[in-house]
Each structure stands twice: as C-alpha cells, then as structure tokens.
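Co-fold these.
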Amino acid sequence: MGQVRTWTVLELLRWTTEHFRSRGIEGARLDAECLLAHALETERLQLYLEFDKPVAPVERARFRELVKRRADERVPVALLTGRREFWSLPLRVTSDVLVPRPETETLVEVALRLLPDPESPAHILDVGTGCGAIALALAKERPKARITATDISGAALAVAKENAAELGFENRIRFLPGDGFEPVRGECFDLIASNPPYLSGREAPELPPELVHEPREALFAGGEGTELLRRIADGARDFLEVGGVLAVEVAPQQAPEMTEWLASAGFARPGCHCDLAGRVRVVSAERGGGGGAVRADAERGSAPAEKGQDNGEPS
Ligand code: SAM
Ligand code: GLN
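Predicted complex below.
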C-alpha cells in the first residue's frame, strides 16, 4: 500500500513558494528558502547545490511545521528562525524585540555621516535599542565610540546584551533599562540615535498581520504614534553636547511635524533623509550653542566637526 512520496529540495521549494503566494505572502520564494535552510540546518545558498537531494521525513516534518506557522499564523520568518541580519551583523531575535527593518539601515547611514570620523571617540546614545541593531552597527563602524543603549523593556535588553556578547561588543556598549532619557539623566552625548515606536493604534487594522507577533510597545505610541517622537524632540537637547547631533526614524508623514518640533526646541540644521524606497524615514538636527544642559565632565573628547546633510524634500 501507498508508498510515502519523497520530496526533493527543489520540489519542496516550488510547492511552498506557491502555497505562500496563494496566501498573499510577499517574498514567498525567499521565505520558503530561509525556512527550508533552517529546517535542514544549512545555509540558504547551499540549497541551490542540493536541489535534487531528497529531504528526510524528520526534516520535512520540521519544515512543514515552520511553513504552517508562516502561512497560517503569519509569524515572520525571522521569528521562526530566531535570526535576522542587520548591517551585515547576524542578530538573534525573539518575540520580545522588533525584528530590525531594512529602513533602519538608513538611520545608521545618517548617523555615520553625522559622525564622519571613523576614529571618533564619540559618546553615542541609542534610545529604544530593541535587539541592539543600531547600537551594534554603530559599535562596528565606530570602534572608538562609547555607546549607551536603553530600552523600557528588560526582556528586549536581555536579547540586545546577548547579541553584543555574541558579536564581541559586550565591553563597548552599556545597556540601561528605563523610559526615554530617564536612564541617562545628567549625561550628555555627541550623537543620539533612535528608532522609537511611531505607529498609531488607529493604523492597526491596516497593518500587515505579521506585526501581531512583535511587542506592542515596540511598534505603537500614543498621539498619532508621535508621543515618543515628541518627547525625544522636546527632551533631547538636554542630553546633547553643544554641536551634538540627533537622528531619529519616523514614518514618512511624521517628518514635517518632527522637523517643526525640533526647530521649536532650538535645534539647528534640520535634515530629512530618504530610505531605499525613496520615502523620508529619518530626521536629523544639530544642537546649536547656548542654553540646555551644562556639561559636567570637562575632559570629554571634542564634538564631531563635519556633519554631512542631504536635505531631501519630505514627500
Ligand atoms: N532600535 C531597534 C531597531 O531599530 O530595530 C528597536 C526599535 S523598536 C521600533 C522601539 C523600541 O523602543 C522597542 O524595543 C521598545 O521596547 C522601546 N521603547 C518603547 N517605548 C519606550 C520608552 N518610552 N523608552 C525607552 N524605550 C522604549
Ligand atoms: N517600520 C515599522 C513598521 O512599519 C515600524 C517601526 C516603528 O514603529 N519604529 O513595521
């Protein structure tokens, strides 16, 4: 009676890609490849060398479970594999953190342009670090910088710490729990970078179903999603050196408002920067002289000199 059918790597990929497509999953083929590679405990590109290899029943069962969770529950691939690459860094992700988005690499690029000296000993703050993506990318690119990363979620910070340890950056980054600037009260930085939650609860019904698998506090903020952006705009000055710079990720439609708030808070040199999709995704500004917090420790390094700006038109 009924011999069990054997499936090859290629056959499984084709079937699964079709299945994902029929469920309206974008990037169906890539998702199928990532999940099959995970089930086979191999690299995705290795699959291409093994298209004709039969997949053993135990591996197929593992794969089937992943496919089911992806298609039926819409769990993001990164949360099924527990890994996500960001800025070429392999990061661990769990349901306690936001899965780092490609748009956020734009924020890293802007931050690096604002701190152009690769040897800069700058003091950097990442507010709402999640899995540590921004702090870790900046630690990699600015090896002399001293970095502080905060998050209101202790569970997220635990993941960030694990990533820092895995990448050998545990002595470069200080992780502090707390709300907004609270954990760094009395300190001043040369650069503040942040990708805060900026979606509004009202948007929730239109958002991709995958988002229910990420922490609410990582995605949503009050007041049209701008509550934390507003707090950052109003408060950041007190935590920046004179000449210090700020780069914040926003939703494209929030950029004009954020720019205004920064101007009202006394920031100079406003800049809007587009992501790869051509949408304004990052707002930057510089703390001019006068007012604000007085620096406590005079021995700190000088503020960065040249600041690159590409003032794009907010769309
Ligand atoms: N920086 C990471 C990234 O870009 O992938 C995570 C960004 S996620 C959009 C926002 C992060 O901010 C979450 O980890 C969340 O826990 C944290 N967060 C939310 N509200 C916060 C607050 N009031 N103070 C500090 N962190 C907050
Ligand atoms: N860019 C994310 C999304 O739309 C939102 C991240 C955030 O709120 N900072 O999925």
